[in-house]
Amino acid sequence: xxxxxxxxxxxxxxxxxxxxxxxxxxxxxxxxxxxxxxxxxxxxxxxxxxxxxxxxxxxxxxxxxxxxxxxxxxxxxxxxxxxxxxxxxxxxxxxxxxxxxxxxxxxxxxxxxxxxxxxxxxxxxxxxxxxxxxxxxxx
Length: 139
What we know:
Helix content is 40%, strand content 32%. Strand 1 and strand 2 (56-61) form a beta hairpin. The protein contains 3 helices and 8 strands. The chain has helices spanning 2-11, 16-45, 124-138, and strands at residues 48-52, 56-61, 70-73, 79-84, 87-90, 93-96, 105-111, 114-122.
């Protein structure tokens, strides 16, 4: 509350220094807020947990609010692959994904020629590592 009163007080002056200091302080506070919001959203909604049993693979998300766990049987699973989704084609057109870090790869589960994305938005090295670990454990 006090911060709002200070802002309103500074806006009454025609001083350039006060306005630039106010805008820089406000920008820093907004950047910290966005950063902590990003961390909070990732911790609450972004984590994927793989539970690997001898005959089943269960994909569970940390937050159970939006999705329920999905279970895949080993006998119905053909293979695991990594796939690049920089350019994603679907029935309504083409979607381009640009990532500075190169995190456009996904680990894909193939079941009777049906692709199911297990884990999304990884780098190529991390996606290959997860896919090879799944192949090593299950096959």
